[in-house]
Amino acid sequence: MVVLLLVVLPRHAHGNEGSDARGTEEGLTAMMFPRRFQSLSAAMLLTVVFCDGLQARQIDVVAGEGVQAAIDKAEPGDVVRLLKGKHNGAVTIDRAIELIGESGAVLDGLGSGNAITVNAPDAIVRGLEVRGSGDNMPDLNSGIFVAKTATGARVEDNRLIDNLYGIYLHGAANSIASGNEIIGRRGVRMAQTGSGVSVWNAPGAQVVGNVIRYGRDGIYTNASRKNIFRNNVMEDVRFAVHYMYTDDSQVIGNVSRNNSVGFAIMYTNRLKVLDNVSDGDRDHGLLLNYANSSVISGNRVIGRMQPIDRWLDAGVQKAEHGLPTEDKTEALAGETARLGPEKCVFIYNANKNKFTGNSFENCSIGIHFTAGSEGNAMSGNAFIHNRNQVKYVGTRNLDWSVNGRGNYWSDNPAFDLNGDGIADSPYRPNDLIDKVLWTAPQAKILINSPAIETIRWAQTQFPALLPGGVVDSHPLMKPPYPADAAKGKPND
């Protein structure tokens, strides 16, 4: 075997395939192997030739030459490298090759179709600037479109600019989009833009470490399962992560800044939503709509004063997802800034979820809890400096503590005489007056009147007057993690 390799490999390394070489090879074979072993030696020779043929080649493409022609002559495992300069698309990858670019290589789709279409399993697109897809929304025109047949394909470390959709994983199981910078279209209506990364029916797909700005949604997923969305940063979009009908998946360590909604989890079951940050989003940090049996832990939602212009050009229509519309959002006389998000968390008909170790800070409302949501466990969370910690208009009594451990409330003037870290009396975030103000906002003009103060005093003296609602029977005396932590992490 060793001798055969020494004889055969130089032949292919030097491309010598003449008749003299073949005769020499046959003579050596006859001398080295008895006749009864010659058929075996021939089989080994074929094996070596086959393996040698799979060695990857690199095909360099100069700007202005045909990229598709280079792809068409490549064999599986080859590398097609685009040299610096502008290369015109659109191209289709129909074999398991790597399409890469040296620094400064740009592939331009010239405004038609997909700039790059990936059809082959295990193909790789890496290190390119990709721009100029078409604008046909029904055809899902994308910078890089990964089709159902491209299982295990990877789209890595690219820069995608001015495409309708950035990357579209369309049915490609176990595909990966990682380390890409995606800049969507600006100066057009929301309906005329696509999402940074879209995932449709792609089980096992991963979207990791991407930076996405502008466009419709940062990451949009629909009708999929067992996906991972981790360590992405999304700014200036509608929803940072828009989740529809995607079960048994993970949303971990992502950052949403200056979007309409941070993380919109809808019609989905059994998710892990862990260690994400919503910083300065406008309407909601976390939105759960028909989301069930999930774990929401270690997340942080931070509200900030924001220019009123953000409300004058609303980028989210709640009614399109069956959510109730909000009060009028136009600016009041003299209003130049407004606190956002309006709600750190909006829970709408979401059931059997576990909220623990989260921080909800400086929003108009900490949690709005509505539409018959049942069986949700709330413990170990921190509600810090929200104007209204909780909005719940139901009449049922809900205890937001689990196994003797509740949540931290920054406005709870409590005592802890035995020093166990649990307040000595329950905490109620709302009273009868709150419910009156929610149903009749005009009553705010009476908020400091003697009548209102008398009613609130009476409720403290006679708890039976308190309406049903949220009560924390074991409130915490301090946040369960450092208040300045980047992401909420329980200490215990």
TrEMBL record:
Xref: SUPFAM superfamilies: Pectin lyase-like
PANTHER family, alphabetized: F-BOX ONLY PROTEIN, F-BOX ONLY PROTEIN 10
Gene3D superfamilies in UniProt: Single-stranded right-handed beta-helix, Pectin lyase-like
Name used for this protein in its record: Nitrous oxidase accessory protein
UniProt pathway annotation: Protein modification; protein ubiquitination
Keyword Aminoacyl-tRNA synthetase in record: no
InterPro entries on file: Carb-bd_sugar_hydrolysis-dom (IPR006633), NosD_copper_fam (IPR026464), NosD_dom (IPR007742), Para_beta_helix_rpt-2 (IPR022441), PbH1 (IPR006626), Pectin_lyas_fold (IPR012334), Pectin_lyase_fold/virulence (IPR011050), SCF-Subunits/Alg-Epimerases (IPR051550)
Sorted UniProt keywords: Repeat, Ubl conjugation pathway
Organism for this UniProt entry: Brucella pecoris
Domain Carbohydrate-binding/sugar hydrolysis: 74-222, 228-425
Pfam family, one: NosD
